[in-house]
Amino acid sequence: MESVQIRRIILQQAKRAGVGHIGSALSVADIISALYGSVLSIPNPGHPDRDRFILSNGHAALALYAALYLKGWLTEGDLDTYCSNNSLLGVHPESRVTGIDFCTGSLGQGLTYGAGAALAARLQQSRRRIFVLLSDGECNEGSIWEAVMFAAHHGLSNLIVVIDLNGQQAFGYTSQVLNLHPLIARWQAFGWDAQAVDGHNVEELESAMNALETTSGPPHVIVANTVAGKGVSFMEHQIKWHYWPMSDEEYRQAIDDIEDFR
Amino acid sequence: MRNTFIRTLIELAERDERILLLTSDLGYMALETFAERFPQRFFNVGIAEQNMIGLATGLAEAGFIPFAYSIAPFAVLRPYEFIRNGPIAHHLPVRIVGMGGGLEYGYDGISHYGHDDIGVLRVQPGITILTPADYEQARSALLSTCHLPGPIYYRLSKDDHSIIPELNGRFELGRTECITQGKDLLIIAMGSIAGEAYQAVQDLKQQGIGASLLVAASINPPPLDDLRKKLSGHRLAVTVEAHHITGGLGSMVAEILAESGGRCKLVRCGIEEPLDGVVGSQRYLYDKYGLSGQMIAAKALAALQQIGSSKGSTYE
């Protein structure tokens, strides 16, 4: 699964539907590519021992839909209903969609589900792993830290958090809204195994995630350094692309940019 | 109900390994029996109610039946959005146990009262809401609903001694339980305050007034048929709840009555004004808010007089 395929679908669908959140979806495109390309073990979406993935920053759902389509769990027809009437594919993920385990959209909830899912796997003596993708701004939520403490206390080594550290949230840069620095040290202080990676280097993401010890020890956090809007020159680092939809001209430019970026 | 509920939960857990018990650090001197019997299936998650409901959601998705325990406002209000987006949105069998619904934690103050838990949950049609009136009914309610699909809220009392006479532990989902039959008025009670409603029935009986008393322990699904039938046979209905008069039993009965086109007058006994911070025993607070048996009877009498009811009807 190539990141450029995910980015292309993000842009196509966002343009067709006239919907925003493009910057966040592009920010996580390489993380999603690594997860669904080689990291997640999901024989089929109904398999009880499949790895679980929770997109806690649900507003990046378009990247997830693209991966589900590329895995063959959504059809092109499904994808083309994105943000249409009578579709299950909304701006935020819905668990009635094949391949989506948990509804998200309200920030700060996905990690609590993930901690429960990780505890469940351990109680069932399953080796399945639980991956939770958080946005950095989402770490403003107090409930994140409730779950962080619980997972560390119970040694949920099968719980892997990836933080999309693009330094932006809706109204501005995280350093200006509510400073998260030093993020890695904070997670470490809560008892997590923490490391930083290049969130746009799929190979680095894959090898970091595949190397984790998930049968014993602490839970893991991978802080993925990313750029909001990555791959589209005029969107990168720009606050407005958290919500903004594209004009026809911007769409043409964006498609050209991601083909060059591959 | 608390000890009975935990004892019954242990019985169920003996037969069903999917049952887990979570607490957000409450239930001291009550949950230990479960924790000792099933140390691997008991989790004190710390004082973190949002995480407790999120954990329960993740556990239930994997096939467990987690019970999440706290005092009613902490079980419902603090993690309310987690309940909505978690077990309700995913239709998962999370069981939320709210202790001390109403004014039972009387000396603890407003923070500990469960006077609004039913109102906020009743606007979520995807959760079963059960409000047993005594420990025998709590046991029946748990036994008969533990394996239902989807989430359940059990609103319980700490009281493991009082019983509602004639209830005999009866419980049926979507039904009311009839305690007394009388022609002059209908009293409908939710939760352990049914004991006060029963007292009101006795007071009225001494004055020659016959009251039917229903215990409503199934708030969702609502007991539509039972209430429609009973309401159509009376000129006056009085609801009794340790809850604000908006959102809870009184509202539910008002909705059913209005939609069924009934001509029965309705009097809602519950907390009418904003709480003022004054603490006291549950008994004291029932008096303060007009919810003692005597005061319920007085309100019923006044309403009967207003609608021109003739005294001296036969008590059945």
> What string gives the helices and strands of chain A in order?
HHEHHHEHEEEHHEHEH
Q: Radius of gyration of chain B, rounded? A: 19 Å
What is the makeup of the main sheet of chain A?
5 strands, parallel
Strand order of the largest sheet of chain A: 1-2-3-7-6
CATH topology of the largest domain in chain B: Rossmann fold
- Overall pLDDT of chain A: 96
CATH class of the largest domain in chain B: Alpha Beta
Give the overall pLDDT of chain B as a whole number. Answer: 96
| Percent range of helical residues of chain A | 40-55%
CATH architecture of chain A: 3-Layer(aba) Sandwich
Secondary structure blueprint with pairings:
The complex is a heterodimer of chains A (262) and B (316).
Chain A: H1 3-17, H2 22-39, E1 52-55, H3 61-70, H4 76-79, H5 110-123, E2 130-135, H6 142-153, E3 159-165, E4 168-169, E5 172-173, H7 174-177, H8 183-189, E6 193-198, H9 202-210, E7 220-225, H10 248-261
Parallel strand pairs in A: 1-2, 2-3, 3-7, 6-7
Antiparallel strand pairs in A: 4-5
Helix pairs in contact in A: 1-2, 1-3, 1-10, 2-3, 2-9, 5-6
Chain B: H1 2-15, E1 19-23, H2 32-37, E2 42-44, H3 49-61, E3 65-71, H4 72-76, H5 80-90, E4 95-99, H6 117-122, E5 128-130, H7 135-145, E6 152-156, E7 177-180, E8 185-190, H8 194-206, E9 211-215, E10 218-220, H9 224-232, E11 236-244, H10 249-260, E12 265-271, H11 282-288, H12 293-306
Helix pairs in contact in B: 1-7, 3-5, 8-12, 9-10
